[in-house]
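Risk register update: the risk of archive-format incompatibility is retired. Evidence:
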Amino acid sequence: MDENGPCITTEDVWYRYSDEIVALRGISLEIPQGTFLAILGQNGSGKTTLVKHFNGLLRPAEGHVLVDGQDTSQRSIGQLAKSVGYVFQNPDHQIFCATTREELAFGPQNLDLLPEEVEQRTNETLELFGLAEHAEKPPALLGFGLRRKITIAAVYAMRPKILILDEPTTGLDWQSTLDLMLLLQNLHRQGHTILLVTHDMKVAAAFTERTLVLRDGQVLLHDDTRSVFCQSETLRQTQIEPPQIMQLANRLRPLGMPEGVLTVQECFDAYSRLRAPA
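Archived output:
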């Protein structure tokens, strides 16, 4: 595998749920290794359908999907799970073990690792995700935010290089969202490629490096996140609005606010410079 090449490539990928429902229409793209990518679009735009091709849950009707340079059509879901971890939108669709410890150990056990390594990975993951105090508790009885964290931890325990998360902040308050995104940011710094399917523009703007926007099963935009959110006219085709702080900053541009402000901190810093004495 080329260490400098893309970790995921799609080549003219089409997918149909039926003759009438075409979910993906000739998608070709490359996702660089080590990126933090937001995937945006309206419901029905093809976001979840696309990412399910990356771990083999779906296979193209036409075209090819390459993970680490290998065609997914030649690899089983189990083989792909060693490279690509998938976290479902609803944690209750993923959790099924009697304790949190068992939940985290399940994936590594199915990788045919030695019992000592399974135990080591489980303990390391419990500590990293701050779940040690819940290790012997039934995860189904824990709060939604903890259940969400457990599903991510269970996938991380398998040590995939690529983590796909489908709407992970849905149902979380802002503090829980921030805690989760800081955790994902830390995993990204460790070298993981993070793919985040989301409707939360504030999260996408604050945490992701690149953004992919889908419309009617096609790629509308794919660029660094700041550049994508600056293309407000194109985004309107998907009924996506830039983050509110960016909209405010744009209204202040006649007063000297720079273009492309993405976060509250950036807006504050830029405004402070404008207000500073000459």
